[in-house]
From TrEMBL:
Database matches in InterPro entries: Peptidase_S1_PA, Peptidase_S1_PA_chymotrypsin, Trypsin_dom
GO molecular function terms listed in the Swiss-Prot or TrEMBL record: serine-type endopeptidase activity
Main location: secreted
Subcellular location: Secreted
Gene3D superfamilies: Trypsin-like serine proteases
Protein name: Chymotrypsinogen
PROSITE patterns linked: TRYPSIN_DOM (PS50240)
Pfam families in the record: Trypsin
GO annotation, biological process: proteolysis
Occurrences of domain Peptidase S1 (ranges): 1-79
Organism the protein comes from: Lates calcarifer (Barramundi)
Record's keyword terms, sorted: Disulfide bond, Hydrolase, Protease, Secreted, Serine protease, Zymogen
GO CC annotations on file: extracellular region
Keyword Nucleotide-binding in annotation: no
């Protein structure tokens, strides 16, 4: 498992992978039996603030793209 170090740079557009056991649809009755993964581009914090406003701090990393994201049950999972 790679762990970020002080001074590491994670520019917008960098491709990352997230995994989790969370819902695969917002209205799914159950979580999946198999671990799920999604490839996501990182967003700059300025890009992320356009969607989430002042909820985004400089201590956060924002990732996502149309059609791919984490969902309920994935909080705290790896990126």
């Amino acid at each position: 498992v790679c762990v970020a170090e002080t001074g590491d740079n994670f520019p917008g557009g960098m491709k990352c992978v997230t995994t989790g056991w969370g819902l695969t649809r917002h209205n799914a009755p159950d979580t999946p039996a198999l671990l799920q993964q999604a490839a996501l581009p990182l967003l700059t914090n300025d890009e992320c603030r356009r969607f989430w406003g002042n909820k985004i701090s400089n201590l956060m990393i924002c990732a996502g793209a149309s059609g791919a994201s984490s969902c309920m049950g994935d909080s705290g999972g790896p990126l």
